[in-house]
């Protein structure tokens, strides 16, 4: 058996609403010229140089096209299987930029995608020939340890949220990978290593600031715009662009007990049977995921258990021992 320990790694995601992707791609334009684009209905559009210049001058952030340096880096996604080329990328610096970008997209009927952390497995963070509302520069995390709340911008990844909240012995249940964006995770519900004990990410979402498709800025909470609050709590995307999340924080010890347990593939039948029995009787503090992997060092198939126990250290080793 082989173990690799890990420490508290928070979890979460960001606001990644996007409209359906189209395969047709618009050809890049020369710097300062008109830019071909694609509409929501798949029609070819032309964005004039003056329209693009007006949008660029209205943003505090950066507006990029294929003619600009850094465009290829800006359109790159975590999932490299997707190589999409948007007509424009609006790298927003705040909610005002988001409103202007959304208004521009609505006025021109542009195909639009929203990028939070850029971790979208299905490639929805970028579109071909449309406008990407890029929130990746909006990465503020503000923890209030007295109120036990964290206000998080939509381009933030899970790791920084965990680090800021853990400094005060606090946590909100997020995802399992530190470089996941909080927006996509949260809008999809949000499940991670602490979820059996603490619940889903959306169970801790107190409010969200949202720019709707008509360019309005709304605060969604149990008291304000409750229907929208219901929609963004696990509804996925397309309810608007979330520009800020406020999470409830809970106390957690600064260390958790866990890591990877590697077992022989030849024992798969027994391992699966025993694993099901152990998990059915496990306390809420113990979470584990099972997967079948190929160990490159050993050059053989193995079974891996990803284990996390947030019980008191004195109890954690005893609870993990059956695994």
Write structural notes for this entry.
The chain has 323 residues and is an alpha+beta fold. It contains 9 helices and 16 strands. The strands form 5 sheets. The chain has a 5-stranded antiparallel beta sheet with strand order 7-8-12-10-11. A hairpin with a 4-residue loop joins strand 7 and strand 8 (149-152). The chain is globular, with a radius of gyration of 22 Å. Mean pLDDT is 89; it is low at 1-27.
Please identify the structural class as seen in this structure.
Answer: alpha+beta
Separation of the first and last Cα atoms: 10 Å
Strand segment tally: 16
Shape: globular
Strand order of the largest sheet: 7-8-12-10-11
Summed up, the helix count is 9
Overall pLDDT, averaged?
A: 89
Percent helix range: 10-25%
- Strand proportion, as a percent range, falls in 25-35%
Order of secondary-structure elements: EEHEHEHEEEEHEHHEEHEEEHEEH
> Biggest β-sheet, characterized?
5 strands, antiparallel
Radius of gyration: 22 Å
Uncertain stretches: 1-27
What is the element layout, followed by pairings?
Blueprint: E1 35-38, E2 44-47, H1 49-58, E3 62-64, H2 71-75, E4 88-91, H3 95-108, E5 112-115, E6 131-134, E7 141-144, E8 149-152, H4 158-166, E9 170-171, H5 182-187, H6 195-198, E10 205-211, E11 217-221, H7 226-232, E12 241-248, E13 250-251, E14 257-264, H8 268-281, E15 286-295, E16 300-309, H9 313-320
Parallel strand pairs: 4-6, 5-6
Antiparallel strand pairs: 1-2, 3-4, 7-8, 8-12, 9-13, 10-11, 10-12, 14-16, 15-16
